[in-house]
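ok, trying the design again with the full structure, not the truncated one.
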């Protein structure tokens, strides 16, 4: 059982919904990013999504793109991202970390080397948005054999014919993208999300966590009420971009987690 599996089992036993936060590793710099990530569990974050900076983040809107550019300019790489996870793990051995990004940096490092180093760094799961199920032999299956969860995205355009293929080798949880388009481009609507979550739950026994378009405590609660949990990314990253203090960023995260946990 991975840390992700254990976390969702614990939340289910307590009748609680999950709050997942996304931050870009190394944004705006390594030390500040590490301070933020270290503070996330106390701010109510159940699972940390750690963004892997990449030059061509095709699923991400301007907010996340700019975060990646800031991180790259500050010297972040895949290895430095793993270094950040290692530093976090020195003080927290329980909070799950999901590395979210694109395949190119992993491919460049080499899958075998990457998996070995990711596990050593305390990474629990992967979301690699540009690897479809048809490419499961590239990374998904080796990752799962190595003991990592491989988390797949489902979207409003994932029809009933496609959904079983998407769910087939997914583990940890299913990430439902609540809107069509890029991150930060629209707001999620609970009325639209609810039937889609129910449809996914019929195809998979995994928790369904909803992301994209959640940006307020009220929205966090509304979406968590119709799903197993909620992900917030762009709204948090935008606070970092504005230069908010670490304390202010974490206070905002706490308001979002309180919203999800009150569902």
């Amino acid at each position: 059982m991975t840390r992700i599996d254990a976390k969702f089992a614990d939340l289910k036993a307590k009748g609680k919904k999950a709050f997942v936060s996304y931050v870009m590793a190394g944004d705006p710099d390594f030390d500040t990013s590490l301070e933020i990530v270290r503070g996330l569990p106390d701010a109510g974050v159940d699972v940390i999504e750690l963004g892997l900076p990449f030059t061509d983040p095709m699923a991400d809107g301007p907010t996340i793109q700019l975060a990646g550019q800031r991180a790259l300019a500050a010297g972040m790489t895949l290895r430095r991202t793993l270094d950040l996870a290692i530093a976090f793990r020195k003080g927290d051995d329980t909070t799950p970390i999901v590395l979210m990004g694109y395949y190119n940096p992993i491919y460049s490092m080499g899958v075998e080397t990457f998996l070995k180093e990711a596990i050593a760094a305390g990474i629990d799961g992967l979301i690699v948005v540009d690897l479809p199920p048809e490419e499961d032999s590239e990374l998904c299956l080796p990752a799962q054999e190595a003991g990592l969860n491989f988390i797949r995205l489902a979207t409003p355009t994932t029809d009933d014919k496609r959904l079983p293929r998407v769910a087939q080798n997914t583990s940890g949880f299913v990430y439902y993208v609540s809107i069509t388009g890029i991150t930060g481009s629209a707001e999620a609507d609970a009325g639209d999300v609810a039937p889609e979550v129910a449809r996914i739950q019929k195809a998979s026994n995994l928790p369904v966590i909803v992301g994209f378009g959640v940006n307020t405590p009220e929205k966090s609660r509304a979406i968590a009420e119709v799903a197993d949990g909620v992900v917030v990314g762009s709204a948090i990253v935008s606070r970092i971009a504005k230069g908010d203090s670490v304390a202010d960023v974490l206070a905002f995260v706490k308001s979002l987690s309180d919203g999800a946990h009150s569902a």
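Keeping the full-length input from now on. Strands lie at 18-24, 47-51, 97-101, 125-128, 149-150, 153-154, 174-177, 208-211, 229-232.
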